[in-house]
Amino acid sequence: MLLGDLWQDNSDAVAAICHEYEVKPSTLEPYEILVAGYWSGEYSGKSWILLREKTSGQPYEVCGSHCSCYGLEEQFDPKLTSAAYLRSDMFPKPDDCPNEDWAAIQKVIASL
Questions:
Q1: Where are the domains positioned within the chain?
Q2: Is 71 exposed, middle or buried (0-12, 13-18, 19+ CB in 10 A)?
Q3: How far apart are CA 75 and CA 23, in angstroms?
Q4: Which of 38, 54, 61, 110 is 20 to 30 Å from 68 at the Cα level?
């Protein structure tokens, strides 16, 4: 599921993530992409990606941000997370994420 304004012209999540984060498709092969979101502010943007490792089923998240000078390059660094954390009050709504996107994210998290 692609959310936000960066991915609007691309229905291929792998291609979109590879392009914006400047990673090779092989980097994403171990993962299933559950959600990829990007939300922009003035001269900046934030990205949040939820992945599931194909072999273990474990969830991973990738967080990226940029200013007007740079993009998301060199920020693809999946971090192990847990369904319990993602469902908790400790997991914050990404900055500039519209409510309808947040509702879609919460639906995916609930299915973990």
A1: 2-110
A2: middle
A3: 9
A4: 61
